[in-house]
Amino acid sequence: MISKMERAVNYVVLTLMALIVLFPIGTFVTSALSPDRSGKPVGIADFQWDNFATAWRDAGFSRAMAVSMIIAVCVVAGQVLLALLGGYAFGVLGVVGDRVLFPIVLLGMMISLEAIIVPLYYQFRTLGLTNTLPGIILIHLGMGVPFGVFWMRAAFRALPRSAFESAEMDGAGPLRMLRSMAAPMARPAIYTLILLSFMWTWNDYFLSLVFLHGENQTATVALGVFQGKYVTQINLMAAGGLIVAAPVLVLYVAFQRKFISGMLAGAIKE
Known about the structure:
Layout: H1 4-32, H2 50-59, H3 61-93, H4 98-110, H5 113-126, H6 133-157, H7 161-169, H8 174-185, H9 187-202, H10 206-211, H11 219-229, H12 234-265
Helix pairs in contact: 1-12, 2-12, 3-6, 3-8, 3-9, 3-11, 4-6, 6-9, 7-8, 9-12, 11-12
């Protein structure tokens, strides 16, 4: 049993840690709402909510956010689907040659993007895929699927083998077991993969800067251009940063609950 003293110490430590984490976030938010160009904090009554509207309009976030959302949704859907199939094949089915094929898949996690960006650009330019959404989506899938397969393979291997053996004896096929058993039981890992994939794709700047321009620029690139124009207006730059970060924050809050419920619902004991 935890004594009252230990519980009080735990609450004090957790409160201090929360304050340390929330302080810079609070400072950033107050800077975004400040009427002062330098982002000087002001009282609640003096908050200037028009900073967000100004940043949205001047940075052209309406088009850029739509482009980023299309890319992120397509990448997340493709990566989760391929990761489920690949992780299930390596983790449950035990495909022929997996001891050779799986390390080859993992090579995609070990290759630095900076090392292949130049030949990748010229290859995609030859194929006519530069400054196109299918091109950037394909690159994100190529860079993200190896991690997804690795992640889901580990999740599937942690599931009890007896459940799959029982289902197989009852006549369930591989796809039926994946849809009805493996995927629901590995739901927490799937939610985490969705969140990580969306966050990595949404926050990408380097690939978008190299392969996209004009009307196809993403939210992060639009934010960089906007900050270059308003480098002395800290309040507008902070407002633009919050706008770009909002989708990731919303998704994190939503999937936090689903992660916990999915972990409890999918729990199983051997």
